[in-house]
Amino acid sequence: MAERQSVLIADDDPLIQRLVRTHLDRAGYRVLTAADGEAALDAAAADQPDLIVLDLMLPKLDGFEVCKRIREFSLVPVLMLTARGEQVDKLRGFEAGADDYLTKPFSPPELLARIQAVLRRVQQRAGSSAPSVVRCGDLTIDFVRRRVVINDETIKLTPTEFQLLQQLALNAGKVLSHTELLTSVWGPEYRDDRDYLWAYVRHLRRKLEADPESPKRILSEPGYGYVLDCPAAE
């Protein structure tokens, strides 16, 4: 029998912990819990869950800090919970390394669907076939090692940032629509969530562009999508 995938629920509300545990257990997941940020960090390091559901407002360490620290040692997918639903919180969550977010209050089936979507993306990344390396000027993307280098400097990307860059690199020179990118990176259920795409393109530009406000690599086609613009091969 295949080992059950594990999900760490980091939330200080016992009712939410019990509710989520009941539904995830029924769905076949092994559930771990943590009631504060320090416990969440310890569980992430010791238990190595397949996914972490991380509340933004945790005692001791908030969700932003926990996510940033987890990203120092793990690429585990993180689904962040926020009670406010403000754009600034979503952007801060993405910048800290979160892969998805869900606004409270939420229904257990909605959370389960998000968890399944994120895990499905991870499995698709692991099983996808792609060229081993793509070079775009002084930008090198190594798909086997999941490594991005600019002028001999390694650029650290989150898993979702890497997958977005991979989609752009595999179609370098071709404008990909918002819908194409959202569907291929996040899944068909996210095809209309342009905030996701805008936020991740913004963070990719910060990491890959000399001047993110005047990008030369990741270009916009207003009202349509984005393209990775590469110099002509010699």
Helices and strands in order, then pairings?
Blueprint: E1 6-10, H1 14-26, E2 30-34, H2 37-47, E3 51-55, H3 63-70, E4 78-82, H4 87-96, E5 100-103, H5 108-127, E6 133-136, E7 139-142, E8 147-150, E9 153-155, H6 159-170, E10 176-177, H7 178-185, H8 194-208, E11 218-221, E12 225-228
Parallel strand pairs: 1-2, 1-3, 3-4, 4-5
Antiparallel strand pairs: 6-7, 7-8, 8-9, 10-12, 11-12
CATH class annotation of the largest domain: Alpha Beta
Q: Within the largest sheet, what's the order of strands?
A: 2-1-3-4-5
CATH homologous superfamily placement of the largest domain? Response regulator
**Alpha carbon gyration radius:** 18 Å
Beta-strand segment tally:
12
Strand count, sense and closure of the main sheet?
5 strands, parallel
Give the ordered list of helices and strands.
Answer: EHEHEHEHEHEEEEHEHHEE
CATH architecture of the largest domain: 3-Layer(aba) Sandwich
**Domain tally:** 2
- Uncertain runs are none
- According to CATH, the fold-level topology of the largest domain is Rossmann fold
Portion of residues in beta strands equals 15-25%
The helix-and-strand class reads alpha/beta
Distance between the amino and carboxyl termini: 52 Å
Please provide a written account of the structure.
With 234 residues, the chain is α/β, with parallel strands linked by helices. The chain has 2 domains: 6-126, Rossmann fold (3-Layer(aba) Sandwich); 128-228, Arc Repressor Mutant, subunit A. 41% of the residues lie in helices and 21% in strands. The protein is built from 8 helices and 12 strands. It has helices at 14-26, 37-47, 63-70, 87-96, 108-127, 159-170, 178-185, 194-208, and strands at residues 6-10, 30-34, 51-55, 78-82, 100-103, 133-136, 139-142, 147-150, 153-155, 176-177, 218-221, 225-228. The chain has a 5-stranded parallel sheet with strand order 2-1-3-4-5, with helices on both faces. The longest helix has 20 residues, at 108-127. The chain is globular and about 55 Å long.
